[in-house]
Amino acid sequence: MAVCEVCGNDYEMAFQVVTAGQTHTFDSFECAIHRLAPICEHCGCKVIGHGHVTDRRFFCCAHCAREAAGSAAHDAD
Ligand SMILES: [Zn+2]
Ligand SMILES: [Zn+2]
């Protein structure tokens, strides 16, 4: 048995995720995403796919990366 570090659920099917040398325990992917997924700098959504990294800034998609970089390069899309 292991306790989810997000919601505290004590669940026999809990699983561990290791990131940056730290082990996290979750009862569900929803909790894992809540705790670990990066957040898009432009729209604020959780990035659960590959996402888009520009200049070490994390975005959910190329559109957001462009919008964030956008004001300088006025490129209509
Ligand atoms: Zn949980
Ligand atoms: Zn976004």
Tell me about this structure:
By secondary structure, the chain is an alpha+beta fold. It folds into 2 domains: 1-36, no CATH class; 38-77, no CATH class. 22% of the residues lie in helices and 26% in strands. The chain is built from 2 helices and 6 strands. It has helices at 29-36, 62-70; strands spanning 2-3, 10-11, 15-19, 22-26, 52-54, 57-59. The strands form 3 sheets. Strands 1-2 form a two-stranded antiparallel ribbon. A hairpin with a 2-residue loop joins strand 5 (52-54) and strand 6. It is elongated, with a radius of gyration of 16 Å. It starts with a strand and ends in a 7-residue tail after the last helix. One zinc ion is lined by residues 40, 42-43, 45, 59-61, 64.
Descriptive keywords:
77 residues; alpha+beta; 2 domains; two-stranded antiparallel ribbon; two-stranded antiparallel sheet; 2 helices; 6 strands; binds zinc ion
Biggest sheet overview? 2 strands, antiparallel
First and last CA, distance: 51 Å
Cα gyration radius (Å): 16 Å
Mean pLDDT: 90
Low-pLDDT segments: none
SS element count, helices = 2
Fraction of helical residues: 10-25%
Catalogue the ligands: zinc ion
Strand order of the largest sheet: 1-2
Counted beta strands: 6
> How many domains would you count in the coordinates?
2
Series of secondary-structure elements, N-terminal to C-terminal: EEEEHEEH
Binned strand content: 25-35%
What structural class do the secondary elements suggest?
alpha+beta
Any idea what the shape is? elongated
Quick gist of this model?
By secondary structure, this protein is α+β, with helices and mostly antiparallel strands.
